[in-house]
Amino acid sequence: MSTDPDTATAPTPPSHRPIRSFVVRAGRMGPGQARALQTLAPRWVLPFAPQPLDAAAVFGRQAPLVVEIGFGMGDATAAIAQAHPQNDYLGLEVHPPGVGALLQKIEGAGLSNLRIVMHDAVEVLDAMIAPGSLAGVNVFFPDPWHKARHHKRRLIQPPFVARLASRLAPGGVLHCATDWQPYAEQMREVLEAEPLLRNTVEGWAEPGTRRPQTKFERRGLRLGHGVWDLVYARR
Computed over its alpha carbons, how large is the radius of gyration of the chain? Predict the structure, then answer.
C-alpha cells in the first residue's frame, strides 16, 4: 500500500483509447517474489476472463466479497483478510513485485479468503464483477499525481467512481485513503457528487478504524504528514 504510480490512472489522450487504472513502470523483483509468482500464482492468481466471476466457486463458499484496487506490496491487504475471515477478498494489481510479495503473505499466513487478478482494474470491474455484487471496494493511497497538469491521471474521477458504485450492493462500502490533502479534497468532491453514494460519517472518517496502517503510512505520519480516509456507502 503506497503512493505508487503503478496503481494510478494513465493519461487519456484525445482518442478512443479506453481508460486504464494504472501506469506500467519497471520495478525491482526480488528472488522470493519471482519464486512466488512462478510457484504460487497458479493457485492464488485468477486469470482475467471476459465473464462474471463465480466467487462461490472460486472461494468454495458464499461470503461477502471485497475488492481492493492497487494493493501495492499487499501488507494491509493480507492483514485485512486475516482479520476478517468471514469475508472474501479480491486484490487487483498489475505490478509484478507487489503480486509476488502478496503471494508470499497468502502462503505464509494460509489465507484461503484472498485471491488476486493481475490485470487492469477497469477491465476487471467491467467484465468480471457483476453490478450490485460487492460488499466493499478499497482504494488505499493511490498515486496523487501532484502536478496540476497530471491531475487528469488520478484514479478517483467521476466515471471511475460511478463504475465502482454500480458494482456495490446496497449498503456496500467504498473506502478511499490518501496522504495528500488536495487529492483528499478532490476525492470528497467526486464522492459527494455520485448519486449512488452517501458519506457514512460527518466529514472525514477516522483513520485506521476500518483498515490497518501501512508501513508507508506510518513513515508519513512520523514525518508529520496527514492521512485522510473517506468511507461512503451505496444507497
Answer: 17
* 4 annotated among ligand-binding-site residues: no
* CA-CA-CA-CA torsion sign (152, 156, 158, 160): positive
Q: What is the mean pLDDT of the chain?
A: 90
Is 179 one of the annotated binding-site residues?
Answer: yes
143 is catalytic: yes
pTM for the full predicted model: 0.88
Q: What are the sequence ranges of the domains in the chain?
A: 29-234
29-234 CATH: 3.40.50.150
Residue recorded with cell 505490478: 95
Model confidence at 13, in pLDDT bands (50, 70, 90)?
very low
The residue annotated as part of the active site, out of 4, 88, 143, 229, is: 143
User: Could you give the residue ranges of the DSSP H alpha helices within the chain?
Assistant: 31-39, 41-44, 55-59, 75-83, 96-109, 121-128, 158-167, 181-193, 215-222
Report the alpha-carbon distance of residue 94 to residue 183 in Å, rounded. Answer: 23
| Residue 147 annotated as binding site | yes
Instruction: Please tell me whether 48 is known to bind a ligand.
Output: no
Residue 173, helix vs strand vs coil: strand
Q: What would the pLDDT profile of 47-97 be if each residue is shown by its tens digit?
A: 999 999 999 999 999 999 999 999 999 999 999 999 999 999 999 999 999
